[in-house]
Write a structure and sequence with these properties.
383 residues; FAD/NAD(P)-binding domain; D-Amino Acid Oxidase, Chain A, domain 2; 3 domains; 8-stranded mixed beta sheet; 10 helices; 18 strands; binds flavin-adenine dinucleotide
Length: 383
């Protein structure tokens, strides 16, 4: 039997960021992957603030000064800035940077998959890997969509119908504009989802989409590969020369979970990153929020006991849940909102200013429209 202060399941952005920030504790991180960070699941596009905030500059593949929002039926909005605002990261390099920092504070074992979890009175007693039993005072579920620990503690929480899946190709030899990221939304282009083209160089890009895939009861209703091919051949994308021969890599996996997790801790287990639904439906963005939730929890634990940490972390998650739900409303407003409202909303969005976002949305739209849209966010939303 091995005993630690804290065991973290998952060495993705969340688990490694948590391990890199925790101090004075005996910490073990476990991941099922042979090579951390591979296979790549993510398009790894992120904002400048995140790079600086988390010291990830060395992982940048390409930077762009603007982005475009494309809604179909000829509706395109471009936003251009003096300095780079969006960056594609080299995902394995980012994981390497985060794991170097984590190794200063903790032990990492992989490949080791956490499947056997013993629960006693709603508390994790131990996990078992091969013939070894691991115990800890505190367990952190950072296992992304797998929810390796949470699924034993709150089995009813997780339903496939609320989970968006993503698939993308990285391709070379393209004739394209590398100075902006393209985001595609709207039912005419991509029903129940979104698509993107993120440049990774002057002639290379990641082209992908994310969509809800399962219907009620878990029946599969979408073939993601066919949907991506339909999108690429639809004529809406402005990248030229794309064909199957210039695909250099395929990335994919689970993206956003549309039902935010209200309660991010269960007795001796805390949940961070994608496992706690910390990702935004707005741009399918999860890296920033996974890192933020992980650091928030680690810093709270460094200076507080578990119960005070629980309170701080719960408050943080409630606030972010509110933020993700407002983002969902924002998604519905693109087409109608005037440019000045979009700019103001983008600013409030990147400042995590919930109150301001709601104020702008309320002032721009008729009370009835607003009420209707509030109704479309998931029923358990905290608003
Ligand atoms: C196609 C696609 C494109 C995306 N594009 C972007 C983007 O452009 N920008 C952005 O910000 N976000 C993007 N995301 C989302 C982003 O990748 C995730 O939000 C982020 O990776 C979440 O980090 P995490 O550490 O919480 O979880 P994960 O990255 O999922 O890491 C979880 C880790 O846990 C391990 N694990 C799982 N189960 C077990 C187990 N039972 N035992 C041991 N280990 C286990 C896994 O091996 C993995 O290493 C994209 C996602 C997809 C699928």
């Amino acid at each position: 039997m091995k005993k630690y202060d804290i065991i973290v399941v998952g060495a993705g952005p969340a688990g490694l960021c948590f391990a890199g920030h925790i101090t004075n504790k005996n910490v073990l991180v476990i991941d099922r992957k042979h090579e951390l960070g591979r296979p790549v699941k993510s398009s790894a596009g992120t904002f400048t603030d995140t790079l600086i905030d988390f010291g990830l500059e060395d992982a940048v593949r390409h930077s762009s000064n603007g982005f475009r929002i494309i809604l179909g039926n000829g509706f395109t909005r471009g936003f251009h800035y003096e300095k780079p605002v969006l960056h594609t990261l080299d995902f394995p390099r980012m994981i390497e940077i985060l794991s170097e920092r984590a190794r200063n504070n903790c032990e990492i074992i992989h490949p080791a998959s956490v499947e056997k979890v013993t629960i006693k009175n709603g508390t994790i007693d131990s996990i078992e890997i091969e013939d070894t039993t691991f115990k800890a005072d505190l367990f952190i579920d950072a296992s992304g969509e797998t929810r390796a620990l949470l699924k034993h503690l709150a089995p009813l929480y997780y339903q496939k119908q609320w989970l968006a899946y993503g698939l993308e190709y990285e391709a070379a030899g393209l004739d394209m504009n590398a100075d902006h990221f393209d985001f595609f939304f709207g039912n005419t282009i991509i029903p129940e989802g979104y698509a993107w083209i993120f440049p990774t160089g002057t002639t290379t890009a990641r082209i992908g989409l994310g969509k809800l895939v399962y219907g009620k009861g878990g029946t599969k209703k979408v073939n993601l590969k066919a949907a991506l091919h339909d999108f690429i051949s639809s004529g809406i994308i402005s990248v030229m020369n794309f064909n199957e021969n210039n695909i250099t890599e395929t990335h994919g996996g689970t993206m956003t979970y549309y039902k935010p997790l209200k309660n991010p801790s269960f007795n001796n287990c805390f949940v961070i990153g994608d496992a706690s639904s910390q990702s935004s439906c707005f741009l399918g963005e999860g890296i920033r929020f996974s890192l933020m939730s992980a650091r928030k929890l680690a810093i709270a634990l460094n200076s507080h006991d578990i119960e005070t940490t629980r309170m701080h972390y719960q408050n943080y998650i409630s606030n972010m849940t509110r933020y993700f739900n407002i983002c969902m409303i924002f998604l519905h407003f693109y087409k109608l909102a005037p440019d000045r409202a979009i700019h103001a909303l983008m600013k409030a969005l990147t400042d995590y200013d919930n109150a301001n976002m709601l104020r702008i949305l309320r002032s721009e739209f008729k009370r009835t429209d607003f009420a209707r849209l509030l109704y479309t966010v998931p029923k358990n939303a905290i608003l």
